[in-house]
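How a chain folds remains the central question behind the approach discussed here. No coordinates are needed to read the tokens, only the vocabulary itself. For completeness, the protein is quoted in full, as a sequence line and a line of structure tokens:
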Amino acid sequence: MTQPPYPPLFDAFDRIRIMNLAHRTDRRREMIEQLRRVGMADHPRVAFFDALKADEPGLFTSKGMHGNFRTYRAVIAEAAAAGESILVLEDDCDFLLPEIFDYRLTEPWDVFYGGYDASDPDDLPGSDIIGAHFMGFSREGARIAADYMTRYLKADFVPDAKAAADPRFDPAIRPPSDGCFVWLRRAHPELRTVFAMLGVQRPSRTDTGTQKLYDRLPLVRTAAGWLRRVRAALNPSKEWTARRG
């Protein structure tokens, strides 16, 4: 059966943005290949967004996580200001085939997860979710998220009661972007959330956490990246599980 020109899912969004640090040309090339595989490489609604860097961790545990959050906030705020819905992809997102061609986003929604790891798979709406590599926001969802993310960075920010009651809660530290979106949904239960497993994060050198030694050594960095891709190709499900752990 011939695949359609591109997955119908993408028609649910007014704009599609891919967050990419300027120096990560490797991820940009890989992401262009992913877009090509689903017929979206030259689509006018798709654009790369220059990811922001942070000079200090701020309220996060690393400069990378701070920059990642600022990038999410900026790209969602742009959509909110334009009154548009948005799909935000991280540049290490791999689309699952043929699942992404078969999926239709038909039910009412405000927040969309195209990939996730849930603390309770039987209760996705109430679950803690790891992963923000494939996130969508309706026009109203983007407006609420942009406002929430701005308040999230204020020193006097108060999370929802469940987060505040967690013994791990530290008012001086903010969870990273995926944690923010969990808090956002708890604070705004009116946001209708839809979950689908349509994309995973490909193995890649991190820019948000602590890099392993072989990723910090220029002479072996390329080889390490090649080995990650080979391992993922041979056993994608195992590699995705390893990344989540």
